[in-house]
């Protein structure tokens, strides 16, 4: 399990560093998505450590079973949806910017608009 957590942490770190280092806007959007996916995966891995049962009522199930709290699950689903919508908005903004510019390199865009 420690290797899984380490690989997820490396994924988040690589996404963060690539967002800073990369100069192309499309690559920045992709690396931000990689970082977001890593964060969601980290929350999922942390949630599996507790060993709680999914909160689905089953006939004949013992009432003393420790059920997982469904609120964090809803928060993670909301984070996934919000991340997808933000990524879509960034891609639309990059498409509109690409209409006016022959390149999506941030240094050239900064020179033109600043």
TrEMBL record:
Asked if the Swiss-Prot or TrEMBL record annotates the protein with the keyword S-adenosyl-L-methionine, the reply is no
Q: Where are the transmembrane segments?
A: 6-22, 34-54, 74-94
Q: Where does the record place it?
A: Cell membrane
GO cellular component assignments: plasma membrane
Its primary localisation, in coarse terms, equals membrane
Q: Which UniProt keywords apply?
A: Cell membrane, Membrane, Transmembrane, Transmembrane helix
Write down the membrane topology.
Multi-pass membrane protein
Q: Which family does it belong to?
A: Belongs to the CPA3 antiporters (TC 2.A.63) subunit C family.
Q: What is this protein called?
A: Cation:proton antiporter
Phylogenetic lineage: Bacteria, Bacillati, Cyanobacteriota, Cyanophyceae, Acaryochloridales
């Amino acid at each position: 399990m420690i290797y899984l957590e380490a690989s997820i942490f490396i994924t988040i770190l690589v996404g963060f560093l690539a967002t800073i280092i990369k100069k192309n806007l499309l690559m920045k959007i992709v690396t931000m998505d990689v970082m977001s996916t890593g964060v969601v995966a980290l929350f999922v891995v942390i949630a599996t450590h507790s060993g709680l049962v999914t909160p689905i009522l089953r006939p004949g199930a013992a009432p003393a079973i420790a059920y997982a709290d469904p609120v964090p699950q809803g928060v993670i689903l909301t984070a996934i949806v919000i991340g997808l919508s933000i990524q879509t908005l960034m891609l639309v903004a990059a498409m509109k910017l690409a209409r006016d510019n022959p390149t999506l390199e941030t240094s050239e865009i900064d020179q033109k608009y600043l």
